[in-house]
Design goal:
The chain is α+β, with helices and mostly antiparallel strands. It is about 25% helix and about 40% strand. The strands form two sheets. A six-stranded mixed barrel has the order 1-2-10-3-9-8. It has a three-stranded antiparallel sheet with strand order 4-5-6, with no helix packed on it.
């Protein structure tokens, strides 16, 4: 084992001491060779404590990698665009996954406030995945004031919809907006996604909706 490699191990040890275990693992285990080098370091004892230092690095790196793997496997992997299924109606909609947006939004036509039993509702038309237009009515949850990119503000109806993305179903707030010409009528934001998704920005339509839906939806 070369002295230059051992210096990288020592540097990795310093990084681990600083709490930068992932960087340390990258410095000492590129290409998945950490186990190989660890077995060789057993015979390398030119300086006192070298074996125990390498052992600590090995254990911490393996623990870090296993934790990262288990965390990644526990998340739902989606592309930057997916088919979502919205409820009520069980409609499949072209959707952009937007980690830069907080609230989800839905492009609708014919957005009209109505009254039902003295309560504020809204009727609107949604285009599904195949281009068919579907009319829906939902109770107005609240009115949101949205600040646009160019500084103006806009008031939007906010409703609650059930959304299925991959295998995860949640009911979440969705703003209604009429923006003609959008490729993706639905935009799913961070409030829906939480910490349960990993977004592959190079892929789209890789995770079909397959949620277990409550019976009353």
């Amino acid at each position: 084992m070369s002295k230059s490699w051992w210096r990288s191990v020592a540097n990795a040890g310093s990084l681990l001491t600083a709490g930068l275990s992932q960087q340390a693992c990258r410095n000492t285990a590129e290409g998945g060779e950490i186990a190989y080098y660890f077995l060789k370091v057993v015979n390398f004892s030119s300086e006192k404590g070298s074996f125990m230092k390498a052992l600590r690095i090995f254990i911490l790196c393996v623990t870090t990698m296993l934790f990262g793997l288990s965390t990644a496997l526990a998340k739902e992997i989606v592309g930057y665009a997916e088919k979502t299924r919205i409820y009520p109606g069980e409609l499949d909609v072209r959707t952009r996954v937007d980690t830069g947006a907080n609230l989800s939004s839905l492009h609708c036509e014919c957005i009209s406030p109505i009254k039902r039993n003295g309560e504020d509702w809204v009727s609107f038309t949604v285009m599904n995945f195949t281009g068919e237009k579907i009319s829906l009515q939902k109770k107005v949850h609240r009115i949101a004031t949205i600040k646009r990119h160019f500084g103006e503000t806009q008031e939007r109806f906010v409703i609650e919809l059930g959304i299925c993305l991959g295998s995860i179903y949640r009911e979440t707030e969705v703003t209604l907006i009429n923006r003609a010409g959008l490729t993706y009528p639905m935009l799913v934001g961070r409030r829906f996604m939480g910490s349960d998704f990993l977004v592959d920005t190079a892929e789209k339509y890789i995770n079909e909706p397959k949620c277990e839906i409550p019976l009353n939806k």
